[in-house]
Write a structure and sequence with these properties.
Helix 2 (58-79) packs antiparallel against helix 3 (83-106), helix 3 (83-106) crosses helix 7 (255-286) and helix 6 runs antiparallel to helix 7. The two termini are 22 Å apart. This protein has helices at residues 3-14, 58-79, 83-106, 186-202, 217-224, 232-247, 255-286, 291-294, 306-312; strands at residues 19-23, 38-41, 45-48, 113-116, 121-126, 129-134, 139-147, 155-166, 169-177. Strands 1, 2, 3, 4, 5, 6, 7, 8 and 9 form a 9-stranded antiparallel β-sheet that branches. The chain has one domain (3-294). The model has no long low-confidence stretch (mean pLDDT 88). The protein has 9 helices and 9 strands.
Amino acid sequence: MALKDIIQEARTKYGEASSVVLTANEPTGQAPMELFITDEHTENYLSLKTSSDTDRGLITGLMALGAVPCLLMAIWFFSTGKIEGGVNGLLVGMPMLLIPFFWEILRPLPLPVLFNRRTKEIYFDNNGELFHSPWNVAQAVACEFQMIGPYTAGINNASLEVVVQQFDNPQNMLMVSLGSPTGKTLDMQKGFWEYIRSYMNNGPWFDKTGTHSQSDAFVKSQLEANLKQSEFLKHTRQTIAEKRSASAGRNYLSGIDFVMLLANLFFYPSSRIQDFTYSIAKRRSRNRWPKIVLERLQSDGPTTKLTDIEKRK
């Protein structure tokens, strides 16, 4: 299928007025904006999480709410000489924690969409098949649409899909979604494409206009808004501290702040375990990329594109 046919299918599906074709070299007219799906932003590559992997570690974290008290009680029983109680605590707590942990880390995570700044390429894994696109000819389609249910009003959504081709079979093309469309607008998706453009063309660091910068301040400000579960406690405490400073001694703690602080304190151990489980699963999954991709992600790796390899065959 030709590239123009794929673009036309997307326009037919979503409508001409609500879709726009985006390219690597043409500005979108929007400021760069990160939409909470960037997994890694490094000097060599940018990786975007797929929607199916964002909750990995959640089951382990939730089960830890019951497992950790059992293990603490087991330690207390052992320290007081109550061996039977300690053994019972271990028999309950250890399986409750370890079974979901190993289940989640041993299942491979879906590989992210990779934007390689060194070789100017896009990589995507589709059930073990490698797809790619040279960045200089990359095209994406952003489409805005509404979803209306019987009990809800219209909800604005906007998708962003980039075109890639199969390695060694360039006629086989895919439209790869870059994040969930839910609740987004066309301008937001254009802003995210501008974020990717700024990284690939002017990166790794750039300012709020997308211009190259020696400082990573703007990029950090964008990524810091995407909080991990374990970072909500710190964010809540910082918010309360700012309100305290601005109140000049007056009553500054609202009921919502108090509830949020208690909730984040309660779930903090669970969130830390969730983040740890996700990091282990992600590290194990990285090696599933083909060698020709992994070596191109290294600082001293080859700079030839996959299309160059295809032409030599």
